[in-house]
Amino acid sequence: MDKPNHVWDLYRSLLAVTREGSLSGAARRLGLTQPATLMHWNHRWVPPCSPDTGTA
Fold first, then answer.
1. Where are the domains of the chain?
2. How confident is the model over 17-48, as pLDDT tens digits?
């Protein structure tokens, strides 16, 4: 289960994307790289694929 700080990290990144208008801008605002920010979002928002169908 996610720790409470992880939820706040996701909220901060969502807010940064909204303010900056892009994932790259959000990464700069947060002091992260764009790939690190994207991995963070993918980990939180993209459901894993089902092994039997290959779809979410």
1. 4-45
2. 899 999 899 999 999 999 888 877 776 665 55
Q: Count of CB atoms within 10 A of residue 45's CB?
A: 9
Cβ contacts of 47 within 8 Å, gap of 6 or more: 56
Q: Which amino acid is at 37?
A: T
Torsion angle in degrees (nearest 10) through CA of 40, 32, 36, 10: 0
Extract the tokens encoding 3.
């720790």
Outline where 1-56 has alpha helix (H). 4-20, 23-30, 34-45
Rounded to the nearest 10 degrees, what angle do helices 23-30 and 4-20 cross at? 120
For residues 14 and 30, the answer to whether their CB atoms sit within 8 Å is no
Q: For residue 30, give both structure tokens.
A: 């947060």
